Amino acid sequence: MPLRLLAASVILLFALLAGLGQAVAFVDSAERYVAVPDRVGRVMAANQSAAVLIFVLAPEKLVGWSDALPRGAQAYLPGKYARLPVVGPLIRPNPPEAAQLVARTRPDLIIEFGPVSPEASARADWLQQQTGVPYIVLDNSIQTTPVTLRTIGPMLGVGQRGEDLAFYVDSAIDALRGRLLIAPATERPLVYYGRGADGLESGLGGSQATADIEQAGVINVAARLGSGELTRVTRDQIFSWNPAIVIAEQRSFYDSLQRSREWRGLTAVANKRVYLAPADPFGWIDNPPGVNRIIGLYWLTNLFYPDQYQEDLRANMREFYEKFYTVKLTDRQVEALARPAGVQTETPGALGVPLLGAEPVPLPSTTPNAPAVTGRPPGRGGLGGGAPGLPNPPSVPRTPQ
Q1: Distance CA 192, CA 248 (A)
Q2: Does domain 3-157 bear CATH number 2.40.110.20?
Q3: Among the CATH numbers 3.40.50.2300, 3.40.50.2000, 3.40.50.1980, 3.40.50.300, which is that of 172-338?
Q4: Which pTM does this prediction carry?
Q5: Which of 4, 28, 41, 190 is disulfide-compatible with 136, CB 3.0–4.6 A?
Q6: DSSP readout, 32-91?
């Protein structure tokens, strides 16, 4: 069944059962049956990705943030939600501490939004048994985001808002796919995403940290080290990959790329293709890996395929922040986000430097983990070297990572 049709069926079922005052046996992304109450007033996030999901749908039902918000981020949120308490994450080494936290918070529902795994399923089962609070696990992959919004919206009593946000996400994903059909594969650059203060942490192939980048169809150079989540790399490895574009998660790495002699000679630095990922109030690439990444799809498309991107990214920014975070960005806030991110003030598509240098960047012959392409000179972005007694349950489809 198509995802949109399935989501519509789920919404209708929730509406009918809620009208009858019945709990619903919901099948989550981990294929667990969870009896969800017909009316949900207080929702606890197991992680910050879930907190953002709950916030954009029904902020008044979020009991608190899982992680503390940086001071600068608070200016990009409505004041009363920026001041929500920090209740802490439920994904922690000591499960009894998590159970005690749930007992103190007294939520009606717990949501975890992240990778689906046996560990996540076992954690949810244990906490649910210990506390009696229904706990659902949701797949946080970008592709399933529209269905998640359409499904969880009615569960939180905001079905129309869930549908509106899902339509926006559908449009962002579809627009990127359309541009990938136009952009030749040989013009897709090698990209390095540097996390942390020194920029020497990155995401492996299929990681949450680089999902936005890989969704954009470019080559994540760190994926050559294998699949998984995060890994440490060396400066020598980055030079050997010689990416055409470098994106910094933190300003310290961004400043180092621009000012330190040790990064001279890297193609991205020489061509001034170094960018700082916007992070307020939440990251455009990760931090956390949630619905906040959707504006990142527009931004990365603007960076990677400027000839195909003919929209006003600043207008996209204003629309996203107002629609998802219910804030109107000031001109100063727009510029604070846009300038280090490389958002141009000229007509979209006009860049002062070529996208990839003098030659097109080759794609690996098979996958991003294939052996390095040889014969290409360095400096061009190439490599130099149903529960009993409950109705039949709706579910959130799980997309393989």
Answers
A1: 8
A2: no
A3: 3.40.50.1980
A4: 0.82
A5: 28
A6: -EEEE-SS---EEESSHHHHHHHHHH-GGGB--BSSPPPHHHHTTS-HHHHT--B---S-
